[in-house]
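Quick start: what a row looks like.
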Amino acid sequence: MLPSIYRGIWGAAVHTLRTSRGTPPCRFLSTCDEVPVGLADAESIFALSSGHGRCGVAVVRASGPASATALRCMVGLSRSLPPPRTALLRSIRDPQSKEVLDRGLVFWFPGPHSFTGEDSVEFHIHGGPAVITAVLQALGSVPGMRPAEAGEFTRRAFQAGKLDLTEVEGLGDLIHAETEAQR
């Protein structure tokens, strides 16, 4: 059995974020049930999901209760989130310095209708190493976000019942396939 990634369902603590500009605090909410999330109990993760190396487009994925906050902070959205599974072209900014890191597509996937079953966001950015590094560092500066461990998105999908064990093994085989026969 896979180890549990959560120490509890929802914690009582509500974490707030105050930016250096003194704006009102943000409360982290899960869009699934509008309950404040204790980030110590339900961590949000992020990672480059399109593979390493130079490419035209890189996909950075985030999943968990702080992903909505990350989306709002990094693309300058007000209170409302974009329509689910709809591409929006936006400037992607560092949440602290407000520096534009890139201009790319963003997608919002509210839970439970996402790969992991959690609230998720994808940033489709230019695939140069400097852009990828800047976006990953910016996500790391959002409270409640941490880099994902290898296979953690798939583990969360399995634990949420989105994939069964056969599908998890098949996905791993497909990702590591190097020949047509292996595919």
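That is the whole record. The first strand starts at residue 16 and ends at 17. Helices lie at 67-75, 129-140, 152-159, 165-176.
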